[in-house]
Design brief:
Blueprint (H helix, E strand, L loop, with lengths): L14 H9 L3 E2 L1 E7 L2 E7 L3 E4 L4 E7 L5 H4 L4 E6 L5 H8 L12 E3 L5 E3 L4 E13 L2 E12 L7 E4 L2 E4 L3
Protein name: Flavin reductase
InterPro entries: Flavin_Rdtase-like_dom (IPR002563), NADH-dep_flavin_reductase (IPR050268), Split_barrel_FMN-bd (IPR012349)
Keywords: Oxidoreductase
Length: 169
Protein backbone atom coordinates (compact mmCIF):
# COMPACT_ATOMS: atom_id res chain seq x y z
CA UNK A 1 0.00 0.00 0.00
CA UNK A 2 1.37 3.42 -0.94
CA UNK A 3 0.70 6.58 0.96
CA UNK A 4 -1.42 9.26 -0.68
CA UNK A 5 0.69 12.38 -1.14
CA UNK A 6 -0.33 15.34 1.00
CA UNK A 7 -0.98 18.21 -1.39
CA UNK A 8 -1.73 20.82 1.30
CA UNK A 9 0.67 23.66 1.99
CA UNK A 10 2.26 23.60 5.44
CA UNK A 11 1.80 26.77 7.47
CA UNK A 12 4.35 28.47 9.66
CA UNK A 13 3.71 28.36 13.41
CA UNK A 14 1.10 30.86 14.60
CA UNK A 15 -1.75 31.07 17.09
CA UNK A 16 -4.20 30.47 14.20
CA UNK A 17 -2.36 27.31 13.11
CA UNK A 18 -2.41 25.95 16.65
CA UNK A 19 -6.14 26.70 17.03
CA UNK A 20 -6.88 25.11 13.63
CA UNK A 21 -4.99 21.93 14.47
CA UNK A 22 -6.54 21.57 17.93
CA UNK A 23 -10.06 22.07 16.57
CA UNK A 24 -9.50 18.61 15.10
CA UNK A 25 -8.50 17.19 18.49
CA UNK A 26 -11.42 16.02 20.62
CA UNK A 27 -10.85 16.88 24.27
CA UNK A 28 -12.69 16.16 27.47
CA UNK A 29 -14.33 19.13 29.16
CA UNK A 30 -13.55 20.11 32.73
CA UNK A 31 -14.33 23.07 34.95
CA UNK A 32 -11.65 24.33 37.32
CA UNK A 33 -12.83 26.18 40.45
CA UNK A 34 -11.22 27.98 43.36
CA UNK A 35 -12.27 30.18 46.24
CA UNK A 36 -10.91 33.71 46.43
CA UNK A 37 -11.38 36.67 48.74
CA UNK A 38 -14.06 38.03 46.38
CA UNK A 39 -15.89 34.71 46.13
CA UNK A 40 -15.62 31.63 43.96
CA UNK A 41 -14.06 31.65 40.49
CA UNK A 42 -14.03 29.06 37.75
CA UNK A 43 -13.42 28.43 34.08
CA UNK A 44 -13.95 25.74 31.45
CA UNK A 45 -10.79 23.86 30.52
CA UNK A 46 -10.06 21.38 27.75
CA UNK A 47 -6.38 21.18 28.69
CA UNK A 48 -6.80 18.87 31.71
CA UNK A 49 -4.28 16.02 31.85
CA UNK A 50 -3.37 13.24 34.21
CA UNK A 51 0.29 14.10 34.78
CA UNK A 52 1.46 11.29 37.11
CA UNK A 53 0.06 8.38 39.11
CA UNK A 54 2.60 8.45 41.95
CA UNK A 55 2.04 10.90 43.44
CA UNK A 56 -1.32 11.52 41.75
CA UNK A 57 -0.87 14.75 39.75
CA UNK A 58 -3.01 16.59 37.22
CA UNK A 59 -2.24 19.62 35.08
CA UNK A 60 -4.22 22.25 33.20
CA UNK A 61 -3.55 25.49 31.38
CA UNK A 62 -4.96 28.92 32.15
CA UNK A 63 -4.41 32.19 30.31
CA UNK A 64 -2.85 34.96 32.35
CA UNK A 65 -5.53 37.29 30.95
CA UNK A 66 -8.33 35.08 32.31
CA UNK A 67 -10.60 36.63 34.93
CA UNK A 68 -9.88 33.56 37.10
CA UNK A 69 -6.08 33.84 36.90
CA UNK A 70 -5.63 36.38 39.74
CA UNK A 71 -7.24 33.89 42.15
CA UNK A 72 -5.71 30.73 40.64
CA UNK A 73 -2.28 32.40 40.76
CA UNK A 74 -2.35 32.46 44.56
CA UNK A 75 -4.64 29.73 45.92
CA UNK A 76 -3.43 26.57 47.62
CA UNK A 77 -6.26 24.33 46.34
CA UNK A 78 -8.37 24.01 43.20
CA UNK A 79 -11.35 21.92 42.22
CA UNK A 80 -11.29 19.86 39.03
CA UNK A 81 -14.65 18.73 37.63
CA UNK A 82 -15.21 16.31 34.75
CA UNK A 83 -18.41 17.34 32.96
CA UNK A 84 -21.03 15.02 31.50
CA UNK A 85 -22.72 15.42 28.14
CA UNK A 86 -25.81 16.68 30.00
CA UNK A 87 -23.78 19.72 31.14
CA UNK A 88 -23.22 21.62 27.89
CA UNK A 89 -24.95 24.69 29.34
CA UNK A 90 -22.70 24.56 32.43
CA UNK A 91 -19.60 24.31 30.23
CA UNK A 92 -20.84 27.31 28.25
CA UNK A 93 -21.49 29.34 31.39
CA UNK A 94 -17.96 28.75 32.71
CA UNK A 95 -16.47 29.50 29.27
CA UNK A 96 -18.35 32.80 28.83
CA UNK A 97 -16.52 35.98 29.74
CA UNK A 98 -18.33 38.19 32.21
CA UNK A 99 -20.87 35.53 33.26
CA UNK A 100 -21.88 35.14 36.92
CA UNK A 101 -20.75 31.52 36.83
CA UNK A 102 -21.91 30.53 40.31
CA UNK A 103 -25.39 32.11 40.14
CA UNK A 104 -28.51 30.05 39.42
CA UNK A 105 -28.90 27.69 37.67
CA UNK A 106 -25.36 26.55 38.65
CA UNK A 107 -25.61 24.14 41.57
CA UNK A 108 -22.57 23.92 43.83
CA UNK A 109 -21.46 23.61 47.43
CA UNK A 110 -18.35 24.30 49.46
CA UNK A 111 -16.17 21.20 49.48
CA UNK A 112 -12.92 20.09 51.08
CA UNK A 113 -10.35 22.85 51.64
CA UNK A 114 -13.12 25.41 50.97
CA UNK A 115 -13.06 24.65 47.22
CA UNK A 116 -16.34 25.16 45.30
CA UNK A 117 -17.61 21.73 44.15
CA UNK A 118 -20.08 21.60 41.27
CA UNK A 119 -23.08 19.30 41.71
CA UNK A 120 -24.01 16.63 39.17
CA UNK A 121 -20.60 16.21 37.52
CA UNK A 122 -19.20 12.85 36.44
CA UNK A 123 -16.23 13.15 38.79
CA UNK A 124 -14.39 15.76 40.83
CA UNK A 125 -11.04 16.24 42.55
CA UNK A 126 -9.64 18.71 45.01
CA UNK A 127 -5.95 19.29 44.33
CA UNK A 128 -3.18 21.13 46.17
CA UNK A 129 -1.34 23.37 43.71
CA UNK A 130 2.32 22.32 43.57
CA UNK A 131 3.52 24.31 40.53
CA UNK A 132 2.60 27.14 38.18
CA UNK A 133 4.85 26.91 35.13
CA UNK A 134 5.12 29.84 32.69
CA UNK A 135 4.09 28.82 29.16
CA UNK A 136 3.78 31.83 26.86
CA UNK A 137 0.60 33.77 27.66
CA UNK A 138 -0.58 30.88 29.87
CA UNK A 139 0.49 29.06 32.99
CA UNK A 140 0.49 25.29 33.35
CA UNK A 141 -0.84 24.54 36.80
CA UNK A 142 0.11 21.24 38.41
CA UNK A 143 -2.01 19.96 41.26
CA UNK A 144 -1.54 17.00 43.59
CA UNK A 145 -4.80 15.17 44.22
CA UNK A 146 -6.01 15.43 47.83
CA UNK A 147 -9.52 13.97 47.62
CA UNK A 148 -12.14 13.24 44.98
CA UNK A 149 -15.28 11.43 43.92
CA UNK A 150 -15.51 9.43 40.65
CA UNK A 151 -19.10 8.21 41.19
CA UNK A 152 -21.10 10.54 38.94
CA UNK A 153 -23.39 9.01 36.35
CA UNK A 154 -23.39 9.67 32.62
CA UNK A 155 -21.18 10.01 29.60
CA UNK A 156 -18.38 12.57 29.14
CA UNK A 157 -18.77 15.91 27.44
CA UNK A 158 -16.29 16.52 24.63
CA UNK A 159 -15.10 19.63 22.82
CA UNK A 160 -14.42 19.29 19.09
CA UNK A 161 -14.51 21.68 16.11
CA UNK A 162 -15.41 24.59 18.41
CA UNK A 163 -18.49 22.87 19.87
CA UNK A 164 -19.47 20.80 22.86
CA UNK A 165 -20.49 17.26 21.87
CA UNK A 166 -21.48 13.96 23.40
CA UNK A 167 -19.48 10.80 22.94
CA UNK A 168 -20.76 8.59 20.13
CA UNK A 169 -20.65 4.79 20.20
Amino acid sequence: MTATPDLSTPQLASPDLLRSVFRRHAAGVAVITASGAGGPVGFTATSLNSAAAEPPLVSFGIGTGSSSWPVISGVEHVGVHILGEHQQDLAGTFARSGADRFAEPTRWHEGPEGVPILDGVLAWLVCRVVARVPAGDHRLVVGQVVVGDPSGVGRPLLYHQGRFNGLRD
